[in-house]
Amino acid sequence: MSKQILVLPGDGIGPEIMAEAVKVLQLANDKFQLDFELSYDELGGAAVDKYGVPLADETLGRARAADAILLGAVGGPKWDKIDPAIRPERGLLKIRSELGLFGNLRPALLYPQLADASSLKPEIVAGLDILIVRELTGGIYFGKPRESKVLENGERMAYDTLPYSESEIRRIAKVGFDMAMVRNKKLCSVDKANVLASSQLWRAVVEEVAKDYPEIELSHMYVDNAAMQLVRAPKQFDVIVTDNMFGDILSDEASMLTGSIGMLPSASLDAGNKGMYEPCHGSAPDIAGQGIANPLATILSVSMMLRYSFNQVAAADAIEQAVSDVLDQGLRTGDIWSEGCTKVGTQAMGDAVVAAL
Amino acid sequence: MSKQILVLPGDGIGPEIMAEAVKVLQLANDKFQLDFELSYDELGGAAVDKYGVPLADETLGRARAADAILLGAVGGPKWDKIDPAIRPERGLLKIRSELGLFGNLRPALLYPQLADASSLKPEIVAGLDILIVRELTGGIYFGKPRESKVLENGERMAYDTLPYSESEIRRIAKVGFDMAMVRNKKLCSVDKANVLASSQLWRAVVEEVAKDYPEIELSHMYVDNAAMQLVRAPKQFDVIVTDNMFGDILSDEASMLTGSIGMLPSASLDAGNKGMYEPCHGSAPDIAGQGIANPLATILSVSMMLRYSFNQVAAADAIEQAVSDVLDQGLRTGDIWSEGCTKVGTQAMGDAVVAAL
Ligand SMILES: CC(C)[C@H](C(=O)O)[C@@H](O)C(=O)O
Ligand SMILES: CC(C)[C@H](C(=O)O)[C@@H](O)C(=O)O
């Protein structure tokens, strides 16, 4: 039976970069006889415009029925002033939560062809290859109660709750250890156990899970120190596992170390490796519609999808090789362009990957 | 009447670096007729050893009575396994909270003499001069309820609460705007208003306070983006104001951009500019007792104290100049040493600053 892929182009540059990724996916489909069937829907601001909500029930139903989801990016100034309850981001948070996509994999990989793009010194980042495993459906993003209210003295106050249960921590810790097993066998768990009750439980449970992975070298680091160490000596890390909020911050910091966030894909997986795949970068409304956005992170998200959700290693490898080939050819979109390279637009870049594949 | 300074050397390298800072303070005292009187007590692990708690009531009483507090650093592996309720850090959190030291100023300044020490490319960080204003007595650090419990199904869970009231946000926002007024008139408020209720209130109140500062160019940034922008282009920032947790993470990241965290002081101020002054770095237990720690951040904390709590601008300037002079002389402790400079120990560095002053 054919595999169903739900494509959600989203907002801003989303539709442009997704068009290129779909070209690549369709070619891989033919070439490797993957038997994929694509359908399309909206998420985020585009869904607000079409359905009045950032994630419509029918879209959620399609997402549940699909075998994997490809997402562009969501959000933009157009929806900045609307009711917070239907902001584009709420659609993203809801699909993560409803589909149980708790395991967020965010690689920070430096492409040798793009070494100069980093704002860090070459010797600090050359060969950088970190994987951040972020818990994606718990913690302060979804904790209840959360409230905004007026106190008796007339003052406003608001609060959020940061909860974690043992089972939530255990399942994401396992993802961290499993990833470390197939990489360099080093896992760093990041928390703030010197201050937070939730972090103390986090650390205790990670220690328990570690017993099942005697081969893994486990360390713990406070989040403030991790933010420093990523700048000072990022190559000390192999896999980092951390909670939703810390993972949001550290994965963005880590991806920027490479200087080419336009190159980085991500995966959000459920317990059965069903996943949603999207570029790490945002919807870049400032350059939307100009045909200059970098489609490579979305194309590499296709490759991640083939690898993690469908175990199509050969096809995934082929796409990554094709991306590497176009970089070798000197083709660059504006965000990764440097002296001596050929500047190309979104479509030309997509076509080049298709040709290389 | 003479001014009372309470000196808390703390743990690890604390006593060593404090000894040098006190030498400098005493010389400034004589030279500028400051009429300071020093007394000593313990905080953190040293207080656990002496009093059984990381902040004794009598120490807190002395801190309340003092006009300013100089702190070394707290914590170390010796106290890692003790009851979490009396960990060294609890003493630090308690003194901040009990004295109402809500305004934490953390400069990230690149010394031209140390430009090479940064892991970032010179053109990205040359001339870097950011001030992070961190809220220090509220948010998730102190929010109630916080609990660790066992659910009915036998599973453990734990949670923390992140609360902010209008008045807490207003007073720290004012510190941010006031600092921006005497700097480059640019303030960036960092939050996660696309996810957190507390951040939505934060943003609204900062906007309100902004009305009193029409000269200031205010911007808002999500914390994940701020973590990226600090790596990508840190010089876009002048003053950053943010909450306790985000400030903890971003100030450490920012200080590491300079490559010389051993040079960075900090101030924690109450509503009347009474303050506690301490280096940004920690207690570095790995090098404690070896006489090799860098005392300059603590010496510069003395200068910050003179400036912010006592308005002794000439004395503060003189200390900063003396530090700059010893750097010009090529003297370096191990943490900031580079080829061609003279490596010196803690005491020799302190003596050199005294001589320059
Ligand atoms: C858009 C926002 C809600 C989201 C998050 O904070 O998770 C984004 O920053 C991300 O990291 O995917
Ligand atoms: C020691 C720890 C509790 C403290 C904090 O998180 O505030 C430290 O990291 C700091 O930034 O002063």
Biggest interface, CB < 8 A: A-B, 61 and 61 residues
* Order of strands, widest sheet of chain A: 2-1-3-12-11-4-5-10-8-9
Q: What would you call the quaternary organization?
A: homodimer
Tally of DSSP helical segments of chain A: 12
The gyration radius over C-alpha positions of chain A equals 20 Å
Low-confidence stretches of chain A: none
Order of helices and strands of chain A: EHEHHEHEHEEEHEHEHEHEEHHEEH
Q: What is the total domain count of chain A?
A: 2
Q: CATH topology of the largest domain in chain A, which one?
A: Isopropylmalate Dehydrogenase
In total, the number of strands of chain A is 14
CATH architecture of the largest domain in chain A: 3-Layer(aba) Sandwich
- Principal-axis shape of chain A equals globular
Describe the protein's architecture and organization.
The structure is a homodimer of 357-residue chains. The first copy, chain A, has helices at residues 14-31, 45-51, 57-65, 88-98, 122-125, 166-181, 197-210, 223-232, 244-257, 296-308, 313-328, 346-356; strands at 3-10, 36-40, 68-73, 103-109, 129-135, 147-150, 156-165, 186-191, 217-222, 239-242, 265-269, 275-279, 331-332, 342-343. The first copy, chain A, is 40% helix and 22% strand. The relative contact order of chain A is 0.17. In chain A, the strands form 3 sheets. In chain A, strands 2-1-3-12-11-4-5-10-8-9 form a 10-stranded mixed β-sheet, sandwiched between helices. Chain A folds into 2 domains: 1-101 and 274-357, Isopropylmalate Dehydrogenase; 129-257, Isopropylmalate Dehydrogenase. The model of chain A has no long low-confidence stretch (mean pLDDT 97). Chain A is α/β, with parallel strands linked by helices. In chain A, helix 10 (296-308) packs antiparallel against helix 11 (313-328). Strand 7 (156-165) of chain A pairs antiparallel with strand 7 (156-165) of chain B, so a sheet runs across the interface. Bound molecules: 3-isopropylmalic acid (2 copies). One 3-isopropylmalic acid (IPM) sits between chains B (89, 92-93, 248) and A (194-195, 224). Chains A, B: It is an enzyme of class 1 (oxidoreductase). Chains A, B: This is 3-isopropylmalate dehydrogenase. Chains A, B: Keywords: Oxidoreductase. Chains A, B: Its EC number is 1.1.1.85.
